Amino acid sequence: MLNLVQRRLLLEHAKTFLLSSAVLLLFILMGRALQLRDMLLGLELGVVDTLRLFGYLSPFFLLIICPIACMLAVFLTFLRMSTDRELVALKAGGVSLYQMLVAPLIFSCGCALFGLWISMYLQAWGMGSFRTAVLNVASTSARVVLQPGVFNKDVPNMVMFARKVDPLSGSMAGIMVEDRRSPDNKTVIIAPEGNLESDYENGQIIFMLRDGASYTGRKGTLTSLHFSEYAVRLNFDTLFKGLDIGPVKPKEYTWARLYDRENEMQLRKTDPRMARKIVVERHKRFVFPLACIILCIFVIPIATSFQGLKQQTGVLMALLLFLLYYSLLMLGISLGESGDVPPAIGLWVPNALFLILGIYGTRLAAQERMPRLSDYLHFRRRASSAAGRASE
Fold this sequence. Notes:
The chain is of the alpha+beta class. The chain is built from twelve helices and five strands. 64% of the residues lie in helices and 16% in strands.
């Protein structure tokens, strides 16, 4: 049963966590909106559709935000207690630092479980729903762009014509396509019917033409070819500026697809870098949730060392510590994807390092042997002031 101190700590952790998560998520989504502004303007999305798309992106960002929000919650709580001398009062009353660790450890384990739920289910659902929604909207918009009876030149080096276009189903009749994307030849494709489709895996628009013929001119020769089906593939950014979602990435994979060993073995032969990215993504799905616990242990002794530090400075200090951790983690991810370092080493070494430092620092803080960094900073300020007065 949790005592009063631990319940109050849990409550303060939770309030800070929710506030910091909301603020960080808002800032990240605002930055993402600036990156996607060309896409949003090109698709002419309404407010509801735009909010829905950002809702789909939120789980991916929450997985990254969860460790830093958890770390901020624990760091700022213990920093305030250290500044207000509450830690001194509790220790004088017989409550050791180890007894106070129960609440932050329970809280960080809850954050880790929340992050694990996001990594296993919500992330793939959100990214998949985002891709599906964008493809559906873009495909519908492409049907509107392709006006019946009009030679469309919106796509560079291509001319498209359809006598009839159904904007609801995407079916077309009386189709002609002139393809000049290859510098060595020009191809004219004629088909009585076809339809407009979207390729989910590769993030492309497909003009699927049926029962037609293609005529290719190359160096004074003409080659004709009759076909039952002919696919003209276009990236979305050729029709809509700023929209290039590309093929499905490992961060969009479901848990089952990440552990598809048969597909991974095939990729090791055809695309080794993609195979390494899949292995790295598997580790990332565990690294970020467990970082909640590790960073929580890491920042507690640091927070107890800064007495008299303002909350604003504490937030900056915590963000710098997380930036250090995140930089090491990104370095490990980059080395793992390039194959220079095994992913298991590249991604888990930062966690192991911060965990060891956190456990050692907590032991020093419990024994009152942790250096008082605030006293050192105060000494430095007094020394600089004295040097300034002496120079005058």
